[in-house]
Amino acid sequence: MDPHISIITLGVNDLARSTAFYQQGLSLEKMNNMEGISFFRMGGTILALYPRVKLAEELGIPDGQVTFPSMTLAHNVESPERVDAVLAEAVAAGAKLVKPGQETSWGGYSGYFADPDGHYWEVAWNPHF
Fold it and tell me: In this structure, are residues 72 and 121 in contact, taking their beta carbons and an 8 Å threshold?
């Protein structure tokens, strides 16, 4: 296997709302005009938004059994100040602030927000990168 991640797909409750959050709110460039799914280029990876019900159906999981997947997405930035700015940008776009930016036990600075569907994003400055 060639070790890389091509696409990260998030199951969303309202595709139009989530697409607007990422496109207008976070200024991501939408790649496609396909019905029923939205793709955004994020460096070498693609972020896909797909209706949660359809994703559960595709996986063969009853819709009511979809729960928190115990994972987060991370966006690293160049400074602690930028962490706070990105968190504020996400909140202004409709995200929920989960944890404000703060110093971490590993020597960096990070905070978390949840997108309109509750997917957790860490915004971090890592002095070790």
Answer: yes
